[in-house]
Design goal:
This protein is 40% helix and 22% strand. By secondary structure, it is α/β, with parallel strands linked by helices. It has three domains: 68 residues, Winged helix-like DNA-binding domain superfamily/Winged helix DNA-binding domain (Arc Repressor Mutant, subunit A, Orthogonal Bundle), CATH 1.10.10; 88 residues, D-Maltodextrin-Binding Protein, domain 2 (3-Layer(aba) Sandwich), CATH 3.40.190.10; 103 residues, Periplasmic binding protein-like II (D-Maltodextrin-Binding Protein, domain 2), CATH 3.40.190.10. The longest helix has 22 residues. The termini are far apart. It holds the Pfam family HTH_1. Belongs to the LysR transcriptional regulatory family. This is LysR family transcriptional regulator.
Length: 314
């Protein structure tokens, strides 16, 4: 039986999706019209239709330009994901030649993963698939929490395994492994030896990534490790980035857990010491996750092969 919703696709002009994406991206009717290849009056008419549909101004006059309304801000990410998914849907099933294809791939990954794989992936695409487009979206807690919806609208996500990723329609393949290490400033007077104890970790001030509220969220990999150690860290700096962590450890008495592959790249430059992590932490296993609906897509199979081959070279 067909599924029904309050808004039926058959009753919509889906060309408005593309117009909406450009209007929200450009925040300017004239520029959006130019990108769409239509006249300015046509783009203005489409904006008027969108305003009627949503019952909202979407673009609000501010000085000499426009800003997004609160609703438009919510729509911006959604329309990008929907348009990307539609483009991928209608491109599925054709033969794929990376040397001539202009296919766009959307990947979600942490900045740590970009540090490990980014330059290799970029060089390979430039060499083997010069017209292929890549859209990299940085991991946020929201992506992990709504994985069932997100994974349908992207080509894949690189992340460690957590229980909510283990779904019937979600596939994954291992890419590479890493381990947690402790990083401290080389001149930190509180750390004199070559090892840290759990008691010291509990006493030192911390830099923590992806820490929106008090107490580590279960989804944060570093938080899971400290929870296993029974540590309630005294967090002094919260950042939304793994690569930012060592910068806020340098020159202070703070400590942080960091992936060893990332730590070794920045330690000398920032004057940090890398110490083994006490408490026998779990290994880090980065996997590539995708929706089962893309199993038969030749372009997606090529992408999976590229990522696994690059990871194997590590």
């Amino acid at each position: 039986m067909a599924r029904h919703s309050a808004v039926h696709l058959a009753n919509l002009d889906l060309n408005l999706l593309v117009v909406l994406r450009e209007l929200l991206g450009e925040r300017n009717v004239t520029r959006a019209a130019a990108r769409l290849g239509v006249s300015q009056p046509a783009a203005s008419a489409a904006l008027a239709r969108l305003r009627r549909h949503f019952g909202d101004e979407l673009l609000v006059r501010s000085g000499n330009g426009y800003v997004l309304s609160a609703l438009a801000t919510q729509l911006a990410d959604q329309v990008e994901a929907v348009c990307t998914g539609a483009e991928r849907l209608f491109g599925t099933g054709h033969d794929f030649d990376p040397g001539t294809s202009a296919r766009e791939f959307t990947l979600v990954m942490a900045d740590y993963t970009i540090e490990v794989l980014g330059s290799r992936l970029s060089a390979l695409l430039a060499d083997q698939a010069p017209d292929v487009q890549l859209h990299v979206r940085l991991v946020r807690e929201a992506f992990a929490s709504d994985i069932t919806d997100t994974i349908r609208l992207i080509d894949g996500m690189v992340a460690p395994p957590v229980s909510r990723f283990e779904l019937p329609d979600v596939r994954s393949v291992a890419l590479f492994t890493d381990r947690w290490v402790c990083v401290v400033d080389a001149a930190n007077p509180s750390v004199r030896g070559d090892e840290l104890s759990l008691e010291q970790l509990a006493a030192l001030p911390w830099v923590a990534p992806f820490q929106p509220d008090r107490g580590f969220p279960p989804a944060a990999p570093m938080g899971r490790q400290l929870a296993l150690f029974g540590i309630q860290p005294r967090i002094r700096v919260r950042v939304e980035s793994y690569q930012a962590v060592p910068h806020f450890v340098a020159g202070t008495d703070r400590v942080a857990l960091l992936q060893e592959r990332l730590a070794t790249r920045v330690a000398d430059r920032l004057g940090l010491r890398i110490l083994p992590c006490p408490g026998d932490p779990e290994p880090i296993v980065e996997r590539f996750w995708w929706h089962a609906g893309y199993d038969g897509d030749p372009a997606h199979r090529w992408l999976r092969t590229v990522l696994t081959d690059l990871a194997r070279q590590l």
